[in-house]
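HUMAN: Please help interpret these tokens:
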Amino acid sequence: MTLNKEKNGPTLGLVLGSGASRGWSHIGVIKALLKEGIEPDIVCGTSVGAMIGACYLAGNLEKLERWVLDSTRKDVLKFFNVKWSQSGFVDCEQLEKFLHENVADRDLQIESLSKPYAAIATNLYNGREVWFKEGNLVHAVTASMALPGLFPAVKDGDRWLVDGGLVDPVPVSVCRAMGADIVIAINLNSDIVGKRTGKKVEQKPLEKKGMLHNLKKTTKEVSNNIFNDSDKDEETPGSLVSITNSINIVQDRITRSRLAGDPAEVVISPKLSHIGMLEFHRATEAIEEGERCVQNRLDEIRAVIGET
């Protein structure tokens, strides 16, 4: 997809950053911008940002919003496999079904989208960025979202790809390279490091009461870990807490560095530290925060893009 050369004014790029469940706020950001008549010419995203951007350009944003607003903890838990395989514990079949039903059709190609789009992934073995600007849309989104430890790596030709947030959580440089003169970037990682929800999850050893009892108890504890990023100060952090907090730290540091080197004209930073990394059922809060942030910065956005 090439840019419209007849377009008057600067080319506007929208960059949607990584951030797992906090990414639902991207829906609110896009809705608020469109409501004000501000429509991006280029869309780039990493991880959940790649998914929301793809959904928007595929014309399925309202459909996805309806799904996330109606979802519960139980619905989200269906995506996770309590068996914890060596490659991750996300149920890939459930995820693929969800993406095809709510984000983009199975055969939709990036080249057929109405606007230029890119999803960012990471080459697992050499650490290089991978820009998906063509090819199957859902494949690109899946690779960009392959968070290590949670999702299995994605095979792409002769390489294995994982989450793009490991190298470029807020891909402003990609958007610039694709022709954006002005960039609005959404950073979901600005207030997450060092923040704790304060909730405590009691962890008890399994009792010898039979396989079914233990399986139910294990499922409950996995659910608690999925939906709670905190842990007791005096105890060794659980595996999910360690994974998610480590990823938060990495993404925060990389985001700060990359935005300092290639700043966007407008950086919107929703306050979402109270939402755990995997609390996907808290979509209403995230979407409303995205809308609120745009409204608070609307005068600045209009000034930057040359509107009065």
The radius of gyration is 19 Å. Confidence is low (pLDDT under 50) at residues 1-5, 196-227. Residues 173 and 210 are 55 Å apart (CA to CA).
